[in-house]
Amino acid sequence: MGETEEAAGHRRQPPVPRSLCDVRALAVPGAAPGVTWKLAESGRQLDANVVHLPPGERVDTHVEPDLDVLLLVVAGEGTVSSGGTEERVGEGTLVWLPRGSSRSLAAGSDGLHYLTVHQRRPGMWIGRRPDASP
Fold first, then answer.
1. Percentage of residues in the chain with pLDDT exceeding 90?
2. What does the alpha-carbon distance between residue 33 and residue 56 come to, in Å, rounded to a whole number?
3. Contact criterion met (CB below 8 Å) for 95 and 71
4. From the centroid of its chain, how far is CA 106?
5. Contact between residue 79 and residue 108 where contact means Cβ atoms under 8 Å apart
6. CA atoms within 13 A on the CB side of 32
7. pLDDT per residue over 31-78, tens digit each?
8. Which of the four pLDDT bands, split at 50, 70 and 90, describes residue 6?
9. Which pLDDT does position 7 carry in this prediction?
10. Assuming Cys at both sites, which of 10, 75, 103, 131 could form a disulfide with 113, CB separation 3.0 to 4.6 Å?
């Protein structure tokens, strides 16, 4: 019989919580637009991104049919619009964007840096997923 991983001295280590970054340090005036940081750790169940929208820029109206999203404003200010309503958001504002909701986001005059967190989307597969029922 072959040795188990434990017997061979290769014990699997449990995951350990750790600090990833200071999101406020990513909120640099004049930063390039787009994603400035993303969660990239292997084995994760979440996706997270810090995004920078320059002054006056926007994320057009869209619907996320499958995922709830939390959005935390890290720096700057702007508006979140949904279904004809508009909410002003600023540093420290935490917004829940429920799945199925229509939403858009616009940066104010100082731009907008925000963190989004949601369940990780499964990767693309060719053929049947390994976890799919027959």
1. 55
2. 12
3. yes
4. 17
5. yes
6. 4
7. 889 999 999 988 888 999 999 999 999 999 999 898 999 999 999 999
8. low
9. 56
10. 75
Structure tokens at 100: 């199925």
Q: Looking at residue 30, what is its pLDDT?
A: 80
Structure-block tokens of residue 115: 């963190």
Residue 78's Cβ-count burial label (10 Å; 0-12, 13-18, 19+) is buried
Best CA proximity match to 23, nearest among 7, 5, 36, 42: 36
Tokens of 49: 């991104």
The encoded tokens of residue 26 equal: 């990513």
**Token pair for 23:** 């999101």
8 Å CB contact between 62 and 103 = yes
Per-residue CA distances from 108 to 8, 64, 90, 131 (Å): 58, 23, 9, 44
What does the alpha-carbon distance between residue 7 and residue 4 come to, in Å, rounded to a whole number? 5
